[in-house]
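Extended Data, record Cell wall hydroxyproline-rich glycoprotein
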Amino acid sequence: MASNSSCHSLTTCVLFLFFLYLSCFFNNLNAKHSITNIHKNQHRHNKHLRNPPLNLRLYRAFLALQAWKHVIYSDPKNITANWVGPSVCNYTGIYCAPSLDDPKLTVVAGIDLNHADIAGFLPEELAFLSDLSLLHLNSNRFCGIIPKTFTNLTHLYELDLSNNRFVGPFPSVVLSLSSLAYLDLRYNEFEGPLPPQLFDKPFDAFFLNNNRFTSSIPRNLGKSKASVMVFANNKFGGCLPESIVNFADTLEELLLINTSISGCLPPQVGFLYKLRVLDVSFNNIVGPLPYSLAGLSHLEQLNLGHNMMTGIVPMGVCELPNLVNFTFSYNFFCEEEGICKNLTSKNIVFDDRRNCLPEKALQRSEKECSDKLKQPPVDCFEVCCDEGGFGKNASAGSVAIPPSAIPVAAMPVSAAPLVAPSYP
């Protein structure tokens, strides 16, 4: 009996030790598996920490462009289809170049999505593109307002938002961009007054036409050194300020088509000696044509059509050496001096219809001209603008003219309702 008991006890001990061994074995396997997973996770995490993006600016650009792609809800041409992954320099419409402050560092320097027909809006994250010099979004369907975070785009030199659906007041954020030289806001839905500070900026060109800007053109013109200013098809009213003379050293194109300006054309316009294009058509300008315009020796296109100007078409204007197109139709001019009667002999394309010119075809009726002549001569000192920019008689006879009523063929290239220029 003692022997059987000892044997049974020994068997029990062996089985216990065997099960204990199996338990330890499986526990070790589970432990190894868990440790392996932990090491893998730590490796991934440590690898990310040890290897941050080699170019933080391109990484920030990646974040910005991904945020932008997220708020694009229509891209019929699939322009942004390859906006995937961190290699932003390979994205369509994205252009990289050496950084201005570190030529060894590549950055996103330009974005050109002109004519892409993209719909969406501009996210605040675009401020991450702090090296951006060019932003061209002409002819898309972007809407909403311009983010105030654009103040971070301190290197931005050209901003073209034309032919979109942006709204709101004049985007004052652009006034904080110290490097900006080219501003194109035309063909949008901006509204309200222009900030006077706009004309304190050293812009080379700005296009504001075909929006809903109102009030008058600010009277502080002068600090800007613009060569091109296009205000056409807005509702400014008031007069063209005499301070326009401050642009004499730079201004080459001035277009004020259908802006509801009134009063007389100031003689100071004749001091803009670099002017090549002057178009003040479809307004409420009265009074005589200043003789000072005879000093615009570089002038090529002069359009005074569809106003209420009177008096003489001076010979000095018709003799301008570079004049190729002169439109003064739909006014009340009653006399032409010298060569003005025969502009064809100078190969000048002209339009003199609907005036009160004797012996010329297609003039106003005798009654219209007689009624006009019976009125007292216009005294430009009486109709000049006050400090607020509005003439005393500014509202008299004011007629709103829709842009569609203006013949495109008669507009200078800069004013025609075409898409804004694209740049390489």
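Summary. The domain at 193-404 is CATH 3.80.10.10 (Leucine-rich repeat, LRR (right-handed beta-alpha superhelix)).
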